């Protein structure tokens, strides 16, 4: 086991380097970088870098700007150094968990992540808990009652809900419950008078604001978890050991909870770490934009649009590292759930 963990950790290093190298190389060829955007602002234009890229005749955004000033701008953003040197410098910073500073917001990337994290955590944790605490028991009930009217109706509703994109559902919720009926607020996680409310009123106000975005986010993951649970239980119920347990006189409850449950939950439990970590660091761009929530999804999108490379590469490094570690934990959960699994 320790040898397997050590090998997986060693494999994380080239994987992480490969992701960063490919992204860094792509960044070098993307037009409209921070230097071009700064020059465009100095010239009073909105998209000088994009015009230069569209002209096909080389970069012309610096026309009318002194060459010394251009060089100062390049030094400001670190583009006066060769690309390999900048890449190795970035790796050295990342090795010390220094994610750099945003070009435009003039804040450390760590600080930006911490500022946006509460919004994404609020959405992610509610989605996670609702998906597991409701969808798993529902999936078990559907499997036990397979072929019944209950199974047919719930499966139909789940599949219909899964077919509706979360953003489309969010728009419908905003229009109906936020616009026409005005039952729920349309933006933010709290009201403007949040600081003046008591604890009870703060809880109610928070739940009132989070209801619509969580409903829009939870539908897809809820359906996947419920159907995965149902199919896993159905597969186990049809196996030979279940017939043997029944033949020995065990009650249906004993067969279900002592034998079937442990084996059927293997694919669900092994996905638990990734879902739990994802609840903290996964932002939904469309939902956050629709409900005016300033989270990690919106931060990532704005960073790519504005060519804020330290934020793009810093968050990519952080989330990729978390993803690799989470994948390792998920694999180790196989051994914890099913001792028959041996990695050697």
Descriptive key words:
single chain; 344 residues; mainly alpha; 74% helix; 0% strand
Question: Concise description?
Answer:
The chain has 344 residues and is an all-alpha fold. It is 74% helix and 0% strand.
Notes on the structure:
The protein has helices spanning 2-28, 34-42, 48-55, 67-76, 83-95, 109-144, 149-163, 166-180, 199-237, 240-247, 252-264, 266-270, 272-281, 285-290, 296-305, 309-337. It starts with a helix and ends in a 7-residue tail after the last helix. α1 (2-28) packs antiparallel against α16 (309-337), α6 (109-144) crosses α13 and α13 runs antiparallel to α16 (309-337). The longest helix is centred in the middle third of the chain and has 39 residues, at 199-237. With 344 residues, it is mainly alpha-helical. The chain is built from 16 helices and no strands.
- So how many helices? 16
Number of beta strands: 0
Average residue pLDDT: 79
Q: How large is the radius of gyration?
A: 26 Å
Gap between N and C termini: 7 Å
Given as residue ranges, the uncertain stretches (5+ residues, pLDDT < 50) are 46-62
Strand content: under 5%
Q: Note the run of SSEs as H and E.
A: HHHHHHHHHHHHHHHH
Silhouette = globular
Instruction: State the share of residues found in helices, binned by percent.
Output: over 70%
What structural category characterises the helix and strand content?
A: mainly alpha
- Biggest beta-sheet profile: none
């Amino acid at each position: 086991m320790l040898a397997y963990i050590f090998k997986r950790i060693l494999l994380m290093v080239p994987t992480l380097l490969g992701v960063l190298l490919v992204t860094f190389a792509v960044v070098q060829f993307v037009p409209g970088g921070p230097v071009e955007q700064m020059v465009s602002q100095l010239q009073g234009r909105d998209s000088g870098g994009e015009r230069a890229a569209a002209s096909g005749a080389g970069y012309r955004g610096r026309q009318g700007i002194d060459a010394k000033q251009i060089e100062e701008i390049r030094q400001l953003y670190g583009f006066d150094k060769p690309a390999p040197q900048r890449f190795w410098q970035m790796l050295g910073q990342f090795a010390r968990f220094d994610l750099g500073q945003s070009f435009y917001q003039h804040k450390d990337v760590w600080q930006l992540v911490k500022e946006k994290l509460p919004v994404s955590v609020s959405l992610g944790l509610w989605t996670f808990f609702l998906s597991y605490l409701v969808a798993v028991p529902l999936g078990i009930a559907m499997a036990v009652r397979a072929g019944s009217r209950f199974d047919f109706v719930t499966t139909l509703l789940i599949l219909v809900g899964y077919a509706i994109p979360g953003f489309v559902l969010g728009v419908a919720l905003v229009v109906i419950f936020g616009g026409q009926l005005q039952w729920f607020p349309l933006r933010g996680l709290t009201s403007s008078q949040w600081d003046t409310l008591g604890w009870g009123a703060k809880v109610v106000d928070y739940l009132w604001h989070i209801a619509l975005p969580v409903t829009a986010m939870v539908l897809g993951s809820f359906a996947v978890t419920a159907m995965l649970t149902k199919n896993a239980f159905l597969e186990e119920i049809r196996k030979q050991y279940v017939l043997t347990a029944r033949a020995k006189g065990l009650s249906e409850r004993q067969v279900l909870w002592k034998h079937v449950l442990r084996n059927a939950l293997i694919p669900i439990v092994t996905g638990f770490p990734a879902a739990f970590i994802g609840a903290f660091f996964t932002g939904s761009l469309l939902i956050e934009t629709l409900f005016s929530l300033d989270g990690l999804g919106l931060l990532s999108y704005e960073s790519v649009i504005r060519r804020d490379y330290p934020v793009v590469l810093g968050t990519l490094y952080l989330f990729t590292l978390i993803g690799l570690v989470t994948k390792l934990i998920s694999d180790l959960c196989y051994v914890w759930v099913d001792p028959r699994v041996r990695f050697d």
